[in-house]
Structure formats: structure tokens, C-alpha cells
Amino acid sequence: MRTYLLCLLPWAAAVTAAVLQPRQDVGNVSLQHPELFSLHWQMLEQNSTSGFETPMVDFLSGYLEEKGLTVELQPVQNPILAYNVRRQNIYAYMGTNRTCRLIMNSHTDVVPPWYPPSDNDTDIFGRGANDAKGSIAAQVIAFLELQDAGVLRDGDVCLLYDVGEERYGDGMQTFVDSLTWKPEFIMTGEPTESFQATGHKGSININVTAIGETAHSSVPQYGRNAILEIMDFLPKLLDLTSTFPLDSFHGNTTLSLSSITGGTISNQVADRAMAVVNSRVGVPAKQIWDIITSQVGDVPNIYISRIGDSSNPLAMDVIEGWRPKKIMPYGTDLGAWTVDNLKFLMGVGSIATAHSA
Fold first, then answer.
1. Which entry of 165, 166, 190, 229 is annotated as an active-site residue?
2. Which candidate, 197, 168, 208, 206, places its Cα nearest to that of 288?
3. ω before 113 within 30° of 0 (cis)?
4. Tens-digit pLDDT profile for residues 293-338
5. pLDDT for 30-41, tens place per residue?
6. What pTM, to 2 d.p., does this model score?
7. Does domain 2-200+313-345 have CATH number 3.40.50.1000?
């Protein structure tokens, strides 16, 4: 099977290069690999923000069925979302053997807000263009070309495209919980600039709540403004990055202020304010959390807690002597992949432009 893996991954990279590296004799990107461009473009037309991936799932599953693949749609339930929201993982393969040895994977959801695709003859723009619909397009076209070339056999490779990666992590967790066999390999597509990722960081989401005392806005001296409390606290929290340990493999640990809210109406002193801070950890998450709680865990009127489960840094497998290697500063669905097998991370696009307008 390793022979097939070595064959498939370079093929995917070569197919993707048609978009990443325009040929000198072809100006318009759509002419370089029409099927790849068309698939990528049509996926970008689907509004699939986290929690509402149905348009993308319907389109991609239909596309794969039209190409003759067996397609399973796995329901994904999330108690914090409306019960009538239809969310499904896509699992596709050749023939009838679903217990594949290699799983090619990425995610169908994107961060909000969605906006439609556009291009300038050399680059493609649109929400999810590189995170991660570009990787899906490359994987699917590589799979279909290898299938047409007679390289693949039933049970060699399956395609898994899960929901919720950007916000909930529930799609991959649902699939892992349902596994009844052990795949030998998983290859996840995320924006790595076509580097082989040697690893990526873990993550902690931190909720910060400030409690004040309400009063009429005409006499603010009789209250205590929670917004001012949290504005005073957040720089102290963010400055802790200078105290975090540096890992020689995964690198530094970062803190990023993701959101802040506070107050209710204009004529009232805010008695509550909240912020979310995301940490990308280069060392075990507990080590960072212990530093945070010991340094700023007892500030009056400020309460900090973790949102959901934290994840630790991961090391990935690589193919020696193939493509260049690089550590990645973010996390992926592989944090929920608890199967003891070979794990690869590689895809198109750059994290520098992921989640940006």
C-alpha cells in the first residue's frame, strides 16, 4: 500500500500546481486544468459556514456520485445547533469496499462571512479558496485521475470530508467514534503551501468574563463598568506570551483576542463583559493553562475558564526524500484523530491568507 500512497500524494501535488503555478503559455487559470478549476469554483459558490454546511455537502456528494463513486452521508448531531439543521460528513469510495487503507480528508465548512468566488486570471478568491476547498478539489481530481489510470483498486483509498472543523470539531469526532476498522494512513488537506507538515500546534479557547455593577449612564460613578474591567485585564493576559516556554519542535505559544462583547443598552453602565482568547500551544495545553491560572487566575471581578476541550501539539508522519517539510502554526481535525496509524498533513494555499477577506 505504501507504493500507492507514494503515487497518490505526488499526483495530487502535481494536479494542484496547475492552480498554484500558472504556466507561461496559459494566462487564464481556468484553462490550465479545466476540471480542477470548475470543481473548485463550484464549491466556492456554496455557502458552507460552520454549522450550515448543507449546500456544500449536497453539491460535493452529488458530484462524487456522478463520477461513479459510492457515497455515504453520515449524520452529525450537535446539541447546541437547531435540531432541524441537516449536517452530514461525506464518505466516498470505489465499489463496495468501504474499509479503505488510506483516507484522504479535509473539511467542507468555512469561517464566516461567506462571499462568492472571483479570479484575476492567475489567482482564485473566495471564502474557503485555500481553507480548505482548494485541498478538496486537488484530492478529488487526483483520486479520479488515478482511478481512470487504473492505479487504484477497491479498498485502497476513500475520501472523507467532514463538517464543523472551523468551530465545533464534531464532524471528525463523529467519524472517529463510528470507525470499525483501522486505516493504515490518513492524509488531511489544509493550507500548508504544499509542504509536508511535520506537525502542528494544539489549542486552548479561553473565556474571560468581567463582572461589574450596573448604574444609570448619567451617574456612572455609582456603578463599576465591566467593559473597563476587561479592557484593563486583557493586556495582562496577552502579555503572558513572553513567559510561555518555547518548544524546540513546535515553536512558540501564541495568544490572540478573538472576540469581545459587553453591555446591554446605551443608558446603563455595563455590568458584564466577555471576551474569547485563543491560544495556539507549542507545549502541552495543561502546561500553558497552569501558567495562565497561576499568573492571572485570581484577579478581582475577572473569571477565566476553558471553552470545550483543549488539544495538544501533534507530530505528523512525512515521506522522506519527497517534498519539503515545515511545522504548521495552527491546529486541524487531526487533533480528534485518535487512531494509531500514519498521519500526513499537506494541502494547497497558505495560512497567511486563510480566514482573511
1. 165
2. 206
3. yes
4. 999 999 999 999 999 889 999 999 999 999 999 999 999 999 999 9
5. 567 889 999 999
6. 0.89
7. no
